[in-house]
Amino acid sequence: MLVPLLLAASLAAPLAVPLAAAPSSIATVLANRTAFNQPCVRFTSTAPDRLAAQASGALRALGWSVDEVVGPEFNEGEALRQIAPVGALYVHSHGDHYWDAVAGRRSSGFRVDGGQCSNAPTVIAPEISAARPSAAPLILAVISTCHNGERASKLPAALGIATKKVSPGKHGPRSFYLGYAGIAWVRGIVRFEQHFWRALRRGLPAGAAFDRALLSGFSPADLTPEWWGNYNLIPTPPPSSPTPPGGTRNV
Amino acid sequence: MSSPTRSHRLMSAGLALTLLTLAACGAPARAIAPSSDHAGGVNAVDAAASIRPISAIAGRLLEPLALAGLTSAPSQIITLESGEVRIEQRLLDSAGLELLSTQSTPSGDLRSISRSSVPFGGAVMGSTALISRAILHLVSLTLPLGAGTPLVSAAGDRRIVSWGRAVNGVPVLGDGTRVALSVSGALVGIAIDAAPLAPAPARVATAAAAKSAALLLVPSGAALSGTPKLGWVAPAIDAGDEEDLSAPRELAWRLRGTLADGTPFELHLAAGSLALLGWDWAR
């Protein structure tokens, strides 16, 4: 009696086989608050919350379903858990080319908040790649840190975005990556991103939004923005059709 | 270079808005309602405020935009983060993509031009040629030239030629004239900003006093470096790191240094009282 039931159950329960990964319509916004505030320093920093709110507001306006993690809950595990499935990502924190102990060389990434003033754990490119083994390339990634706009940064590749530029009017992948080369000062970051997000909310392509933000009044000595991907991309989420035509394929 | 005071600017904005309202009342409703005027159309809002029509600006670009097939979006009155009122005009292509936008003051001064989809590539210009090209763009649009020596910087395959704004030799951070170009000199955008300034203090503290005051504020392990410099800065919200762009710029001592972990920072102290106005630091 039991065997036929189990057999029937096994036949009835479809075994879903992963197909080509579909882009996700989920966006995540991660911001480090602790390291930039009292008691870690003697100053008040409202910038991380402002930057996260700007990013979340714009992403929602573009149609994304946004998760926002600001402050100590932005830890290593949560960051990787959040990044694994997303189609759009915003990170504001310290960033650099950190030591990758496993590979024995430097890799690129960012520090998490984790409630720590300094030397908070890092999330580096190989960890992101491992967390997204078959995920589609991100549609939009804004890495609001130092150094991750440099050509040497390994974060674009970990997010599936080639460090190439698709010119205005040309066809290319549905991806756009924004980062800053060298040291990035926070007042410049706030000005630049305020203009960038505003332009995206107006329906401009990501490359044109970048162009607009170049006029935002930041000092070029304090900020060097860089981008990769498709100038023409309007970074809306993918159509919500995770199920392939004909429904889930069963075996 | 002098700057209008905030009250002066608000007065002129108020006057222009009154004119706009009068024009709106005296004109057919469709003249100011959102419309699908073709490029070249001038609506009552623009006419009342002596705003240069965007179609005229499109034609004066060194790389003029062909207007066939373009439509002008209705002009809008917008308020910037600074509280400054501007009138915005936009030219859209057949897909609704914004190809050109302008912002003018209510009194008709053009303050911003932004183009979209300016191609990359072409012969890469050197700094001197880029500066010449930027000047040509400003002259072509009859915009005022920046004062002093411009700075040329690069970002994302674009070039930015910028003239800072200074008052009595003291820079006003974030203000000035910026011209964004492609590497071959095509115009990407222009911004001209001049924020209102707070009255300068009757007496400016010495650089040495500023340094002593700063040492009391910096976290343990931090060190100051270089010589304090004067600048007009936006005071920060809660004396933190986020600029309050709606506030007049204040004369401040700027002091740079590094935190214990090597992160660079900059403190802003009121030039007269040495009160903390805000700070900035690297990520």
Write the layout of secondary structure elements.
The complex is a heterodimer of chains A (about 250) and B (about 280).
Chain A (H helix, E strand, L loop, with lengths): L1 H11 L13 E6 L15 H15 L3 E6 L5 H8 L4 E5 L2 E6 L4 E7 L10 E3 H7 L8 E5 L10 H4 L6 E2 L9 E5 L5 H16 L4 H8 L11 E6 L21
Parallel strand pairs in A: 1-2, 1-3, 3-7, 7-9, 8-10
Antiparallel strand pairs in A: 4-5, 5-6, 9-10
Helix pairs in contact in A: 2-6, 6-7
Chain B lengths: L5 H21 L2 H4 L11 H5 L5 H7 L10 E9 L5 E8 L5 E7 L5 E6 L11 H14 L10 E5 L2 E10 L2 E13 L4 E7 L13 H11 L5 E11 L16 E9 L5 E7 L5 E6 L2
Antiparallel strand pairs in B: 1-2, 2-3, 3-4, 4-8, 5-6, 6-7, 7-8, 9-10, 10-11, 11-12
Protein architecture, described:
The complex is a heterodimer of chains A (251) and B (283). With 251 residues, chain A is an alpha/beta fold. Chain A has seven helices and ten strands. In chain A, strand 1, helix 2 and strand 2 form a beta-alpha-beta unit. The longest helix of chain A has 16 residues. The radius of gyration of chain A is 20 Å and the shape is globular. The N terminus and C terminus of chain A are likely disordered. Chain B is built from six helices and twelve strands. Chain B is elongated and about 65 Å long.
Radius of gyration of chain A: 20 Å
The secondary structure category of chain B is: alpha+beta
Biggest sheet descriptor of chain B:
8 strands, antiparallel
Number of strands of chain A: 10
Question: Helix share of residues of chain A?
Answer: 25-40%
**Integer average pLDDT of chain A:** 89
Name the chain pair with the biggest interface and residue counts per chain.
A-B, 54 and 52 residues
Strand order of the largest sheet of chain A: 2-1-3-7-9-10-8
Q: Specify the structural class of chain A.
A: alpha/beta
- Averaged pLDDT of chain B, please? 85
Main sheet strand line-up of chain B: 1-2-3-4-8-7-6-5
Overall geometric form of chain B: elongated
What is the terminal separation of chain A in angstroms?
A: 24 Å
Helix coverage percent of residues of chain B?
10-25%
